[in-house]
Amino acid sequence: MLPLCVLQTLGQGAGWIAWLVAGSFKRRSNENFLRAFPQATLQMQRAAMLSVGQMFLEMPYWWVRRNDRALNRNVAPADWHLFEQALAAGKGVILLSPHMGCFELLGPVYSSHHPSTVLFRPPRMAWLRDWIVNMRTRPTLKMAPANQSGVRSLVRTLLKGQTVGILPDQVPVLGEGVWVPFFGRPAYTMTLVQRLQSLTGAKIFVLGVERLGIGKGYKMHIAPMHEPLSEDPVQAATQMNSAMEAMIRLAPTQYLWGYNRYKQPVA
User: What is the pTM of this model?
Assistant: First the structure.
């Protein structure tokens, strides 16, 4: 119910608390940030923590907004013709985004223009899973769990010439990824995107939603991947991580550096 600018201010306050209190998330955030950007100043590291606070308070705000016109007013005009051209080929579109800025806006804004299905990792608690699905789902936006059933749903969506969305900087389960560099450090990276493109011929776009300041809206960055991913899974994952890095470099203080991107996968 609160205005977005108030939530963003409160989010900064929450970020300040996280910054002032020592903990594993803060330590990992600073370590990952400095490994990727050795020149990052203390101010930049603190800004990244404030961004995390804003990110988490913005999520429920956008979950409950259902006015597509109002949603789009918050995002600077994007090159929508790029998506329209790709969809016209009839092979579907794959949208990739790192956990950067207000990534939660991507699904609602994109699906207000074109129907889409987004892959998500369901929480273990059934009530929380059902609640998140209910909040994120819209008439033109469906959720697909990160399991075999969800992958089949993505394939069906692409074969219909529609759009799927994936956050590929999450660590997949053991056996569904390969070890490739991410900001110069080995990270277990999903091979799903390469398999989906190989099967359908879908065009890939890398997206990012940059927060422009408290109450100033957002900017959507769009980067088409002009070359198809390699048929070799390792090379394909390397290409994808390189594209993720390029997007993150546009707003490095708005990336979720505290996520344990370099952890060992589990079965």
Answer: 0.95
